[in-house]
Amino acid sequence: MKRRFDAVSKYIRESDMYLLILCVISSIYGIILIYSATRSQDTNTNVYIQIVSLVLGIGLYVLFSLLDVDTIADRAKILYVLSILFIATLFIWGTEINGNRAWLRFGSFGVQPAEIVKIPYTIILAKMIANFKDKKTLSAPLSLVQIVAVFGGLFIFIILSSSDLGSALVYLFILIMMLFVGGIDLKWLLLGLLVLAGVILLAWHTSILTDTQKDRILAPYNPNIDPKHINVTWQATQSQYAIASGNFLGKGLLKGPMTQAGSVPQQYTDFIFSVAGEELGFVGCFLIVVLLLLLIIRTVVVGIKSNNTTGLLVCTGMAAMLIAQTFENIGMCLGLTPVIGLTLPFFSYGGSSLITMFAAMGIVSGIKMRPKPARFRSYSR
C-alpha cells in the first residue's frame, strides 16, 4: 500500500497537474454548455457520452504522461503506416455527418480518425525534424521532400476519404509551426506558401472545389454572396445573433431563447461558443478564451523547458493544434472565418475530440516529467 501511495505522490509531484486541472475545468465547463444546448431533447445521451469521454480522457492523460515520447517517436514508421490505415477505414465504414464522411460509428459513439491521428502525426514530424536538425540537413531539399511527403500522404487520405477540409488544414498549420520552430530556412517556408497559393488557385479554377465550398470560403468577406443570410451564412448569422444578445453577463444559464429553441444549428458541437455567448455573455466567452490561452501557454512553456528538440517540437505541434482549432472555431462563430466544421477544443461535444485532447496534453505532461538539463532544473514548475 505504501508503495502505491508513494507512486501516486511521485506522479502528482512530477506530472503537470496544472495542465490537467485546466483540461478538467475546461471540459466540465463544456459539459455544462452541452447540457444547456441539448436539454430540450428527450435524453441526455450527449452529456453522458461527454462525461464518459472526460473520465477516459483523464485516464489517457495519466497513461500518456507515463510514456517516453522519444521511445514512441522511435517507431515513427510503424505509427505512420497505422495512421494511414486508420484513416483509410473511412473508405469502407465511414459515416457521413454534416457533409463529411469523417466518422466511424459504434452505436451512439463516434470516432473521428483524423482527430486521433493528429497525435502520431505530430510525433512523427517531431522525430523527423529533430533528426534532420541534429544532422544539420533540415533545410536540405531531400529532407524537406520527406517531411512534406509525410504531411501530403495524410492530407490526401483525409480529403479523399472524408472531404474533411477543416481537419486537413489543421495538419497543415501544425507542419508550418513545427518547421518554423525547428529552424528551417525561411526561404523554404516562403516558397512553400507560394506553392500553396498556386495550389489554391488551381483548385479554385477547376472542379476540385464546388460552388458551395467556394461560397462558404468567401461568405465571411463578401456580403453579396448570401445577402439574406438564408444559405451558406445561416449558421454563422444565427450564432452571431445569439452571442450579441447575451451582452455582458448573458441571459442566464439554461435561459437563452435561441439556445433553448435550438435556433443555432450544431450549437452543441461546432457552435458551442454561441451558447456561452447568449447565456453567459461576454464573461462566459472571455472565460473560454482565457482557459484555452492558458492551455496553449502552458504547453509552449513545457516545450521551451524540455530536455531535447523532439520534446520542444511535440509541444509546438500540440500548441499549434489548439491554436488552429480555437482560432477557426471562435472565428466562424463570430462570422470572421469560413464555417468548415472544427470543434472547439475541450468545449465542443465529441468523444474522440475530447479524448484526443487529453491524450495530447498527457504527452505534454510526460515531456515535463522527463529529466531536464541543469539550466532548467530550477524552473521545473
TrEMBL record:
InterPro entries per UniProt: Cell_cycle_FtsW-rel_CS (IPR018365), FtsW/RodA (IPR001182)
Residue stretches spanning the membrane: 16-35, 47-66, 78-94, 106-126, 138-159, 165-181, 188-206, 280-297, 309-327, 347-367
Membrane topology type: Multi-pass membrane protein
Source domain of life: Bacteria
GO MF term (any one): lipid-linked peptidoglycan transporter activity
Example GO BP: regulation of cell shape
Compartments in which it is found: Membrane
Sorted UniProt keywords: Cell shape, Membrane, Transmembrane, Transmembrane helix
An example Gene Ontology CC term for this record: cell division site
PROSITE patterns listed in its UniProt record: FTSW_RODA_SPOVE
Keyword field contains tRNA-binding: no
Main subcellular localisation: membrane
Protein name: Rod shape determining protein RodA
Coiled-coil regions listed in the entry: none
